[in-house]
Amino acid sequence: MGKVTPVQAPSTPAPYPNQGPEQLTTTHRERPSPERAHRREPGWPPMGRRQAALLAVTCVAYLLVLAGVLLNTALVDLDWSVRLFRPYERWPSLEPLLDTWVVAGQRGPSAIAAFVWLGWRAHRLGRLRPLLVMAVALLLLNVTVGAVKIVTGRLGPHYAQYVGSPELFSGGTIFPSGHTANAVVTWGVLAYLAVRWRRTGAVIAAATACSIGLTTLYLGTHWVTDVLAGWAAGLLVLLSLPLLEPLVVAAEQRLARRPGP
Which residues in 70-103 are b (16+ Cβ under 10 Å) and which e? Predict the structure, then answer.
């Protein structure tokens, strides 16, 4: 008999030649669509050393202003100097304009305007993050500023009773300035969430917050130390937001998992 040569079955070519398991995984990995990639919004960056140092400096400045008022120091004398100067009587023509402009620092109107824009942005991104960041910031602001207002009980310049007195523990709610702190937080958060125009927005937000504080001094509704403390209180909230980033992420994920109606 002749030698029998076994017939070899034709080898089946691999569906993806010249590709190992790692390459195969890479080939089939789902790639985000351009639209989905466009909708990504960066989270609040982690707190760096510079930001932590600024947070500490702002906190110390806030405490120094508070101590200066409580101890009836030269800061209170500065308060009364501006109060007795009466800017609204020296430049009365500015009062109608500034009386309108100060509304930009009021909690209600500014929050409504901010949430309208953030609602549009949230719809465009398909995310709740813009709304949640603002909500967390305003909640933190109202709790911290409201607590100090209640504890100090300071009266405003128009209701002051004794010249040279800090007018504390008299049932007032003027320290720190809510208008000023609210302007810092509301317009500061909007500047950050703008992303593309963040630097320009930051300049506009800073100018708005500064002008709101100075406007309250012109109108005589706040003491100088109220405004200084308001700027510090608002900045503390902005600088503290990176620490609350996990809360924002958790809330967004939890709301995203809720079944629709």
Answer: eeeeebbeebbebbeeebbeeeeeeeeebeeebe
Whether 80 contacts 164, CB under 8 Å:
yes
Residue 9 placed within a domain:
no
Per the structure, the count of domains in the chain is 1
pLDDT tens, residue by residue, 116-140: 999 998 999 889 999 999 999 999 9
Is 5 a domain residue? Answer: no
Least Cα distance to 221 among 68, 82, 71 occurs for: 82
Residue indicated by tokens 């465009």: 124
**Spatial distance between the Cα atoms of 167 and 156, rounded to a whole number of angstroms:** 8
Query: What DSSP character marks residue 17?
Result: T
Residue range 184-231, pLDDT digits in tens: 999 999 998 887 888 899 999 999 999 999 999 999 999 999 999 999
d(CA 188, CA 127): 20
Distance of CA 259 to the CA centre of its chain: 29
Q: What pTM, to 2 d.p., does this model score?
A: 0.81
| Range of the structural domain that residue 227 is part of | 49-256
Q: Where are the alpha helices (DSSP H) in the chain?
A: 21-28, 34-39, 49-70, 74-85, 87-90, 95-101, 107-125, 129-152, 178-193, 198-219, 224-240, 245-257
Residue whose tokens read 């702002």: 58
